[in-house]
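Data deposition worksheet. Section B asks for the primary sequence of the deposited chain exactly as it was used as input, without tags or linkers unless they were present during the calculation. Section C holds the resulting structure in token form. Section D is free text for depositor observations; keep each observation to a single sentence. Incomplete worksheets are returned to the depositor.
Section A, Depositor: J.P.
Section B:
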Amino acid sequence: MDKLEAIFEYQGRFDTEIIEKRNLQGISMEEWIQKETLAMMSELAELIDEVNFKWWKNPKQVDHAAVKEELVDLLHFLVSMCIKTGMDATELHARYIEKNKENFNRQKGLSQKKGYEL
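Section C:
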């Protein structure tokens, strides 16, 4: 099992346990996506707080471990949403590669979508 597949496996087991123990059966995929998107927004707010975005406030030393922890929290919710939509690690990887290629093409002016080229 590769690292991404392992992450999907661990997250799937965690989600199953949470759903069972917190009695969350029957929630639709749409509602899960809504809940997990809101959770990611909360985690993003925690992440931005770690990197001194408030220009009106004296900066503190960045806690790099806390930054990394927030990034992992975001990954938990992203992978959970992937699983709930039926996407596995292989599909996520393939879609990432495809989109990454498109992003490079956009920057080079080689895409059907205009306005990105450098």
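Section D:
The mean pLDDT is 96.
The chain has one domain: 3-87.
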